[in-house]
């Protein structure tokens, strides 16, 4: 599955593509929503690693505008439940992720992103 | 009687094609049968994952059927381990490891499709022994070290050993010419119907070879090897465990900076 938790960690790794290579842009996506168990302790620990602008931008590309533009100071349960939904319940099953810098296309099929590159393309 | 493990020699060029034929294509062919034989987590790996903190994210580089993705079982969902593998057929199994949806990525352990040093931990179990040269195995360790936090990143690596335990059914041929640098071998995989045998390439590690590889990889990244230094402004990696169990060598590493 490509959920936004994974998307927030992925970056383009084409040889020489080392700046502006994150976040990848979604295109032509098919999205499925599926509930998953809410784990506030996981979320509190993970929040410092989130690139917030990348997360809200990607969520908007998938049609979800529930997150605030800035990470709130108060991490109450309502906010954590919204974050949980955006990070872990929106599954991109099919589509493309495009590098904002070199425009390399990474395809997603059956929920599995293809991040393979030919050896000569790897940095 | 299972077919024997046989010595092989690795070509000097076209290594990617060699691994594609003798490793990747085979795992795609044997995925279902292979997965049915790989379900029990090894205790040292389970205990490593149990020791990690809530909210941490990790990379399982060479996840296979994803058997480590659900761990730790007593705190489900408190860690997120993302599984990476070269075999798409194994990933389809890993996607549902433990009966819950997992995050998996089709990729190569020599790639680095991630934000630099973004993970809290990385494991690579029974994977880098499928890379065909010392340079490629060193690069795989460099990629693991660069995937994790420079402050607290933890890494666990397992590889097969030339030194097999008493219960092992395998007799590893030893080529005296390669003494001290491990053995390149083909290990047969017999399909359950017994009609097909696939020879997978392995580099079996000599005693001490895995730790030496870590030292070379750390040097390649400009990391000091040892416990955290008193001197400010240094980056390093500590080898916390360097062991052998049940026919495997393993190392547990921790990154630090001052």
TrEMBL record, chain A:
Record InterPro entries: Trm112, Trm112-like
Domain of life: Eukaryota
Gene Ontology terms: biological process: rRNA (guanine-N7)-methylation; tRNA methylation
GO molecular function, one term: protein heterodimerization activity
Family, as annotated: Belongs to the TRM112 family.
Subunit structure: Interacts with TRM9.
Protein known as: Trm112p-domain-containing protein
Organism: Mycena belliarum
TrEMBL record, chain B:
Key word Methyltransferase present: yes
GO (cellular component) term, any one: cytoplasm
GO molecular function term, any single one: S-adenosylmethionine-dependent methyltransferase activity
GO terms of biological process kind: tRNA methylation; tRNA wobble uridine modification
Residue span(s) of domain Methyltransferase type: 59-137
Keywords of the record: Methyltransferase, Transferase
Protein name, as recorded: S-adenosyl-L-methionine-dependent methyltransferase
Organism expressing this protein natively: Mycena belliarum
